[in-house]
Each structure stands twice: as structure tokens, then as C-alpha cells.
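Please predict the structure of the following assembly.
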Amino acid sequence: MTSNKIREIALSHFAKNGYEGASLADISAEVGIKKQSIYNHFKGKDELFLTVFRDAAEREMQFTESYLLSGSKPLLKDLLYNFLHSYSKRYEQEDDTRFFLRMAFFPPVHLRGEVVEYSNKHLDTIGKLLEQHFVTAAHAGTIHPEVTAATASAAFIAVLDGMFVELLYGNMESAALRLNASWLVYWRGIRNN
Amino acid sequence: MTSNKIREIALSHFAKNGYEGASLADISAEVGIKKQSIYNHFKGKDELFLTVFRDAAEREMQFTESYLLSGSKPLLKDLLYNFLHSYSKRYEQEDDTRFFLRMAFFPPVHLRGEVVEYSNKHLDTIGKLLEQHFVTAAHAGTIHPEVTAATASAAFIAVLDGMFVELLYGNMESAALRLNASWLVYWRGIRNN
DNA sequence: AATAAACTGACGAACGTTCGTAAGGGAGGA
DNA sequence: TCCTCCCTTACGAACGTTCGTCAGTTTATT
């Protein structure tokens, strides 16, 4: 399906060059068609972008939920640690995450509203899913009483974002280094004993 | 001086819209001149951008050094905590930091080399300046022996970046909330006792 | 025969850039 | 003081290019 091919390639271009930096000419060239042919599948650049963005947002959401909704209840320590590593691997392999992250930070001005809405939804979901685990862990005494579930959750998302930054800015290796350091300090900071 | 006015306004436009999103027409209009007149002061868009970027990078560097080179040696806890808060306030008030951060993440493709070079220099400087304080603190027994100076430093920069993300993506209030959480967990994670 | 999806061709608008030109001010000599 | 030369800075007009978009036509599939 050409439409899907356009989606895929458009996503990679948006991720790499941003909305303004990505041109329909370049995208269509890589697809192997003329840029005018894109209009057989999408009304215009905006619709193409929003379609691609919504798809990516949904896949991000699904990944998160599939991880944090797990019926099995692993140890908090394992859950969090694996989540960080899975997400970093995901970032490395999937254009989705790079694209989603870049657009969440710097959306095209005239589509800002829609983009921000989806981004917030995603963050809220992560936050709520996490909080459940932290509350459970707090009751079980896994977390030090000085650290509330809300605090542990907020700090964890900060660790996640810090990892994203290093992935965006540095590379896999430097991100792994930072992740190890962040995780060591973070877990020491919230654990009980 | 018109040249400086161009610099200032160009910086704010680059910060808000990115390199491709900022047009010489918009910039010059806000300055109060025609876009052709910019060429009396700069060879072109690239030179304007690089000039502005180098200036911003230098000011960022100066801010960092003035803070972390302080001849007086405050307590590590105070130094770090105040640094985080000062930087968040700086981000709020200065276009410099927003601009620098955005361009470090997503530089214009054809100027990537130069931009990355300056960004790395800045990060290295922060890292080295921090490491000194952490080494000192480690010798003084302020930091828990399980946490090396390098680890504490890397984790702290991650906290800083996490704060940047929330500033970029959220707002001052949400950033303050996250900062409090991150800081509480971080300090618990590295302190001795 | 009908329909989807590719094509060619052209459009106005915006982009960064270059040209020649004119206004203004300071320096130096008559 | 006046005149001239030069330098700076602004301008209008236009450049070639690229942008996203629209209309009409051909090709391929069913």
C-alpha cells in the first residue's frame, strides 16, 4: 500500500528534519512517486502530518500500556528498571519515539494545539499507570516512608526524560552510562533500606 | 546599534520557530527594516545564525562557570540545589537558554557540525566543573561510598536535563514540582547517612 | 466500463539572496 | 565654511529556487 509507505517515510523525515524542514518533494522522491501524487492519499501536508502523528502517539501509548498494565505484578525495582531499558531500546529502533518526542517538544506552530493535546494524554497515562505501582509499593513498604508515591513517580518520569535527552542529544552508549548512574541514585533514593 | 537589535530578535525567532521556521522577513520586520538590509550586517542567514548561536553558547558557558567556579566553597547540597533553581529561573527569563537548548537538540542539518561542537564543549565544561565538587565531597565523606563522584555527577546532569525537558514541555509550575521531587530523591540517593 | 492512483504541467507565495542606488555622516583639504 | 570623497546603512526591484497546492490526463486494476 502506497499510503502506508508515504506514512512511514514521512514520519522518518519529520523526525529527522522537523515539520518545516521536511518537504513533500523529498518524501515523495523517497517513496518513488511525484509529490503531487501524495494528494491522492492526503488532503495536504497538514493532514499527512497529523495522521502520522496520531498513529505514532497511539503506538507510543500502546507500548506504555502493554508494559505498565502487565497483569503479572513484578517487583517494582524490576518493573522500573526494565521499563527504562525497554524504552531506550525502543527509542533506538523505532522512528516513532524519536518523531513523537521531537514533535512534543517543538510542534509546528499552527498545529500546536492538537499536538500538545495528544502529548499530554500520553504523559498523563504514564503518570497514572506508574502511580498505581508506586502506591502498591508504598503500602508494601518497598519505598521509604519519606518518599511519597507521587514524588517517586514524578522523579521517575524525570529520569525517563533525562534518558530521552541523552538519547536525542548523545548516543546509545552515553545514554546507557547516564541511565546506569541515574538509576543507581534513583533507586537508592526511594528504596526502604 | 542595529546589528545588535537584529541579533536579539533573530535569537528569539530561532528559539521560538527553529532555524527553518524563522524567516529573515519576519525578523527584519520586527527590527523595523527590510530583509535586504540584514545583508549589510551579516553575509546571510547562516552567518547570522552562527553569530547568534556562538554568542548564546558563550553566555551559557559564562553563567555556568560563574556559578560552579565560585571561589567560596559552599556545601555541596546548597551548591547543587541553588544551581538547579538558578538555571530554571534563567531558562524562564533568558531566551538564550531556550535557544541554545533547542538548537543543541535539533540543529539545522547543514550546520550540525559546528553546533554540536559548541554544545559538547558546554556540556564537558559543566561536567568537569561539577566533578571537582563531587570529588571534594567524596573525600569529605559527604557522599555515600557506594556512589562514585562520576556517578553522582552524571546523575545530577540527568536531573538538570529532566528539568529542562519539563521547562520546555510544561511550564514553570510543573517544572518546579518535578524539580522538588527529583531533588529529594537525588539527594537521598547520594548523601552519606 | 469504472475506479483508483499515478502522471504532466502549471500556479501563487514565500524563501534567501543579489543588484544598483540614495540618504546620511565624518574626515580632510581648499 | 564649503566642497568632496568615502563609508555605512537603508531601500526598491528583481533574481532563481523551493514550497505546497490544484487541475487535467493517462495508466493500470478489477
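Chain A touches chain B through 43 residues (CB under 8 Å). The radius of gyration of chain A is 19 Å.
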